[in-house]
From TrEMBL:
Family statement drawn from the similarity comment of this UniProt entry: Belongs to the ETF-QO/FixC family.
Ranges for domain 4Fe-4S ferredoxin-type: 558-587
Protein name, per record: Electron transfer flavoprotein-ubiquinone oxidoreductase
Keywords: Electron transport, FAD, Flavoprotein, Iron, Iron-sulfur, Membrane, Metal-binding, Mitochondrion, Mitochondrion inner membrane, Oxidoreductase, Transit peptide, Transport, Ubiquinone
Main location: mitochondrion
Length: 598
């Protein structure tokens, strides 16, 4: 893995002393007085996922047309490229075919298991009923992969082409010019203790000043969130909506392994008021990916996504699949965009653009987004190259060409065809009407309608949460190993690790304020109105409301405890908390999960 020391050796103008730790032992960090190293680059990309790496690779492919070398830097908060990447995943190779036409000739490519069949099942508590699947869910020509391995493979190709990829460097903030346009990003400080004081290992974050800054953090990233708000990029689009996807990888008994089989489920264990469904993908090498996606617009604060997932595995269909000599080897979770075309914001801002899931290009009917994310990155690269070729331009890079190109591409038509399916569940049709409408639209209409369902009330997933008094607590069965386990046992399979003595990256913050009164109000409202939703909703056991009669920031004998070291960076808390006062920020670079086969 590249380290900050390695980075300094690769960039000669970083040879000045960053800090004399002996002079500042345990002083409170003041960002206004720190001297930061600043690097000038042509393009800075935040996030080494499929979108960010496709952007970088395409830029290097365009160097010859420009007639000059481009310095392209990719910052990645994970300890390694791919370690924070998680998805089902079945990949539609359309974008990959365009980006790397000879990919199948590479000996090291990870697309070794093609999808051989696609099925859909409706589950009751005890039955598994085959039902027709929409044509959009056909997987002919697709591949079942580990997205973390696929991403690591793209990262190797990018580096071979001359891209500077820096794992362990979290993009923590935006660098602005005097006129308010974007001039680059700042990485996180390293070596602060829990109180924000400088340890002996302290190093300030660096600035990467770029002519073009591209944000590819994934769903609900902290920098994208800041830029969308600052430049009002959602003024003409609906709020983004999300699902939480929980996943396990099992090495199944050979009698249950059917390589290339793709199965999607709907129905049980979710009730008819809750949007979601499950999947089973038979990967290469005897592995099976299985999981559950739940729409974060669910109303019942007693719902636990993790326990719903564990309960699902006790259905006879899953119990048989995981029987015999089956072993669970991985667990993970992440939020994914569900808003579709109506929720895509303006894609460009002065000096840069949003790509991939930072903008939100998941086709929820296909349950796929990697192909669209990669294509968006390629189009952003072409627009960035065009902007960089305008040597005489004195203002911020104009990336509006990227949005025009994307609307003319197959990404837009891919999303347009299914634009009404997810949103139909929020119309007066309700859940059952939404299912019926989605069937008719996907099979017959294929999006060829004069109407588009909109979220005119502009309700967010948090606002769909209803008070606890309207529901009964859900009586979940206790874990029954090895088929189901408690949450902390599952968490050990993520490889998650954060330095204990660092500032908590999950902040109780609202309107820029953080204080005892706000924290106390958080506890009061979330306990009295929503029965402590976060301690059930979080798929990593980060949040607890514990008894403490003496806490100044508590209420009614309880206080909030944030176990930030457990965080798997799914962003659910930031999205779903009804009081909208939890802000997810990046921890020290390299912290978090260490996914390898997810």
């Amino acid at each position: 893995m590249l380290t900050r020391t390695v980075l300094r050796s690769r960039t000669p103008n970083l040879n000045r002393l960053l800090h004399s730790s002996s002079r500042i032992s345990r002083q409170l960090f003041d960002p206004s007085t720190v001297e930061r190293v600043s690097e000038d680059v042509d393009v800075c990309i935040v996030g080494a996922g499929p979108a960010g790496l496709s952007t970088a690779i395409r830029l290097k492919q365009l160097e010859q047309k420009l007639g000059k070398e481009l310095r392209v830097v990719v910052l990645e908060k994970g300890a390694e490229v791919g370690s924070h990447t998680l998805s089902g995943a079945v990949i539609e190779p359309r974008a990959l075919d365009e980006l790397l036409p000879d990919w199948s000739l590479r000996d090291d490519h990870p697309l070794t298991q093609s999808a051989t069949s696609s099925h859909m099942r409706f589950l009751t508590k005890s039955l598994s009923i085959p039902i027709p699947h929409p044509p959009q869910m056909s997987n002919q020509g697709n591949y079942i992969v580990s997205l973390s391995r696929f991403t690591a493979w793209l990262g190797n190709i990018a580096e071979e082409m001359g891209v500077e990829v820096y794992p362990g460097f979290a993009g923590a903030g935006v660098v602005y010019t005097d006129d308010g346009s974007v001039a680059g990003v700042r990485t996180n400080e390293v070596g602060l203790d829990r109180l924000g004081c400088m340890k002996e290992s302290f190093e300030p974050g660096m600035e990467f000043r770029a002519r073009v800054t591209l944000i590819a953090e994934g769903a609900h990233g902290s920098i994208a969130k800041e830029l969308i708000q600052k430049f009002d990029l959602r003024r003409n689009s609906d709020p983004q909506t999300y699902g939480i996807g929980l996943k396990e990888v099992w090495r199944v008994d050979p009698t249950q392994y059917r390589p290339g089989e793709v199965v999607h489920t709907m129905g049980w264990p979710l009730d008819f008021r809750t949007y979601g469904g499950g999947w089973v993908y038979h990967m290469a090498d005897g592995l099976v990916s299985l999981g559950l996606v739940i729409g974060l617009d669910y109303a019942n604060p007693y719902l636990s996504p993790y326990k719903e997932f564990q309960r699902m595995k006790h259905h006879p269909y899953f119990a048989e699949l995981l029987s015999g000599k089956s072993t669970r080897i991985a667990y993970g979770g992440r939020s994914l965009n569900e808003g579709g075309l109506q929720s895509v914001p303006q894609l460009y801002f002065p000096g840069g653009a949003l790509v991939g899931c930072s903008a939100g290009f998941v086709n929820i009917a296909k349950i796929k987004g990697t192909h669209n994310a990669m294509k968006s990155g390629m189009l952003a690269a072409e627009a960035a190259a065009a902007a960089l070729s305008q040597e005489s331009s004195s203002g911020p890079a104009d990336m509006s060409q990227y949005e025009t190109a994307l609307k003319d591409s197959w990404v837009w038509s891919d999303l347009n065809e299914v634009r009404n399916l997810r949103e139909s569940f929020h119309t007066p049709l309700g859940i059952w009407g939404g299912i019926m409408y989605s069937g008719v639209d996907s099979l017959l209409l294929k999006g060829r309608t004069p109407w588009t369902f909109r979220n005119r009330a502009r309700l967010t997933d948090a606002q769909h949460t209803q008070p606890a008094y309207r529901f009964r607590p859900i009586d979940y069965p206790p874990p029954q190993p090895p088929l189901s386990t408690d949450l902390l046992t599952s968490l050990t399979l993520t490889g998650t690790n954060h330095a204990e003595d660092q500032p908590v990256h999950l902040r109780v913050r609202k309107g820029g304020n953080e204080n005892t009164a706000l924290r106390k109000l958080h506890v009061q409202r979330n306990l009295s109105e929503y029965a402590g939703l976060l301690q059930r909703a979080c798929p990593a056991g980060v949040y607890e409301y514990v008894e403490d009669e003496t806490a100044a920031d508590g209420w009614n004998g309880h206080k909030l405890v944030i176990n930030s070291q457990n965080c798997i960076h799914c962003k659910l808390c930031d999205i779903k908390v009804p009081t909208q006062d939890i802000t997810w920020t990046v921890p020290e670079g390299g912290g978090g999960p260490k996914y390898t086969i997810t």
